[in-house]
User: Fold UDP-glucose 4-epimerase from Roseivirga echinicomitans.
Amino acid sequence: MQNILVTGGAGYIGSHTVVELHNAGYNPIIVDNLSNSRMSVLNGLKNITGKDFTFYQIDCNNKEAFRQVFKTNEISGVIHFAAYKAVGESVAKPLDYYENNVGSLMTLIRLMKEESVEKLIFSSSCTVYGQPDQLPVTEQSPKKTAESPYGNTKQVCEEIIEDISISDKSFRAIALRYFNPVGAHPSSEIGELPLGIPNNLVPFITQTAAGWREELTVFGDNYDTEDGSCVRDYIHVVDLAKAHVKSLEYLTLHSNLSFDIFNIGTGRGNTVLEMVNTFEEVSGVKLNYKVGERRNGDIEKIYADVTKSTETLGWQTEKSLKDSLKDSWNWQKTLTKDI
Assistant:
């Protein structure tokens, strides 16, 4: 059984990927500093899989501590999630974001090279496209100047990985450009756990429905979209997790591949107001929301062309928007406000 190191494996997307790796016959090893996750996630993983996964509470920038993970375990590949991810915070604290997101990747790759670990799946983002000129977005769409330091760290990290793959033919990597992950595991054992005020739409919707938040603000209803609100490509986190397993299998099968990039989304866009209406439909809860002013930096609409990931990786989404919102609501109902 291959050991796959999952950095940020106690986080939202990381934890769901741990489950899918386990289901596919891999042995995930989790590294997480718990700065944006909780130890309780490990209990959820055990309840789903029946297994206690090896876990290291380590910061990926702590090279000596991180090195011991490689020395103690025979690692076959790495999936790198660990990163700060709040766009607004990155504008306020750019140095923290560069140090953490870019620095941890460089530390990781140095250790991979030291220990002859050749396969890397990198967690990237559709933020690299900015406001696209054409829709849907393909992997060949031009990368725009990033709207935030967070988005720029993803661009820089992709470039570092590509440069390393050119300089070292034994190092092979895939970058997955996520669109908007939503939902939770159908078991309601794991899901999104935002600390403080959520940065993402769906946790804000579910927390408003649960009475944790007084109201939801829809930022703008005068965009050039079907109902005036922004359009995004919302993908169920379980479908997203499965894309990582497919990517790992693809890297293993294609030893001549040095570096490639894939969009991971549904291939369709939904407006913010459509999300609100669909949530009300699946939950039976009427949301208290208002329309506010546009937010600076918000992209009007973006959604993925997923032809390449479907045809090349043999991956496609299985879950609907209703599935995503139903699973998010069921997860929300398991939470207490003191999380």
